[in-house]
Amino acid sequence: MKGVLIATSTLLLGLVSFTALALDFSTDDERNTIQVFQHASPSVVYVTNQTMVRDRYSYDVRAVPQGTGTGVIWNDDGTIITNYHVIDGANQITITLQDQSSWPATVVGVAPSKDLAVLKIQAPAKALVPLPLGDSNNLSVGHKVLAIGNPFGLDTTLTVGVVSALEREIQSGNQRTIRNVIQTDAAINPGNSGGPLINSKGELIGINTAIYSPSGASVGIGFAIPVNTVKHIVPNLIANGRLQRPSLGIEIGPSHWAQRHGIKGVPILKVGRDTPAEKAGLRGVRRSPRGSAVLGDVIIGLGADVVENYDDLLSALEKYKPGERVKVDVVRDGKVNRVSLILARSTQ
Q1: What's the distance, Cα to Cα, between the start and end of the chain in Å?
Q2: Confidence at residue 145, expressed as pLDDT on a 0 to 100 scale
Q3: Rounded to whole angstroms, how far apart are CA atoms 49 and 63?
Q4: Rounded to 5 degrees, what angle do the CA atoms 308, 310, 315 make?
Q5: Would you call 103 helix, strand, or coil by DSSP?
Q6: Are the C-beta atoms of 231 and 218 separated by less than 8 Å?
Q7: Which of 65, 73, 121, 298 is paired with 165 by a 20 to 30 Å CA distance?
Q8: How many CB atoms lie within 10 A of CB 239?
Q9: H or E element: which one contains 61?
Q10: Residue 227 and residue 237: Cα distance in Å, rounded?
Q11: pLDDT value at position 11?
Q12: d(Cα 177, Cα 170) in Å, to the nearest integer?
């Protein structure tokens, strides 16, 4: 009997020892993942988009959920960042924090062409934990990234992956090209939109915005707007409500006018009076003595950027501010000319 007790005690000690060893199996990478999640999750919010509908029988108007998504606390004054497509068409927007408190949100500014929106809630500062901002220019393919979001309504879900590629291009909802996008294999599903992409330091390095998937679910190809782009846009949206870009003072003609002459660029239809374009001597379409339209200047470059279409021109302009001087390359009568002008503030 004593031998049995000794054997049993030895077995129990072995089990305890095995259990203790199992708790130590976590790697440095796993510990980093846990720490980043615990650090970042209080900064991730649940966004509910509601719209008003009228009951077909009673004619009563009521709010119904139109969609859900994710947002990021930008600072402790209640500023929230999410995707524009998450709140598009909403009559009411509700933000739910990690403490499960819910707050009505107002729209401060939107940039549909960048799929970004800035919201504001009146929550106490102690409940708002902003994420530290990283530098997306320092990313390399292979860097570890983490995504936190609310896929399919399942709040605070973590996925982990790497940067799969950089400088990708995707289309926004209004068909503008979003450039320099981060591609990741961290699973991003419906509901993750507007959530953070985070590096191993716990810094925000992107806003998750889209996936490429024939089925609509994650297949390991997700895209995030770089945080450096967000840093540039958010102050503009807070100040102006919309993305403000400087103006050349021109009206744009159909692209096929330039293509008909074998030119890739943006044809100028009309030059506004007392505008930077007029002062620089740019020309729009004019009539020949016989009454036919004669192609004017075609913009093929702005600053260091090549301009082949209207989207290229808008993207190039967004890099400048009103009052800055920029060089514009145009084709006139088959020859390339370069003019210098000072950009004006857009009135649109």
Answers
A1: 93
A2: 95
A3: 10
A4: 90
A5: strand
A6: no
A7: 73
A8: 11
A9: strand 61-73
A10: 15
A11: 45
A12: 6
Q: What are phi and psi of 31, to 5 degrees?
A: -65, -40
- Residue 182 CA neighbour count, 13 Å, CB half: 37
Contact 256, 290 (CB under 8 A): no
Question: How many C-beta atoms lie closer than 10 Å to residue 291's C-beta?
Answer: 6
The Cα 229–Cα 239 span in angstroms is 16
Angle at 160 between CA 156 and CA 162, to 5 degrees: 145
Q: Name the one residue in this structure whose structure tokens are 């000319």.
A: 337
Q: Report which residue type is found at 244.
A: Q
Please tell me the distance from the alpha carbon of residue 54 to that of residue 61, in angstroms, as a whole number.
4
Token couple for 48: 């509910």
Q: How far apart are CA 230 and CA 242, in angstroms?
A: 14
Residue 6's pLDDT is what?
Answer: 43
pLDDT digits (tens, 9 = 90+) for 312-336: 888 888 888 888 999 999 999 889 9
Instruction: Give every residue of the chain whose pLDDT is below 50, as ranges.
Output: 1-22, 52-55, 57-65, 348
Q: Could you tell me the two tokens for 244? A: 């403000």
Using CA atoms, how far residue 289 sits from 261, 285, 292, in Å, is 20, 13, 8
CA dihedral sign of residues 60, 61, 62, 66: positive
pTM: 0.72
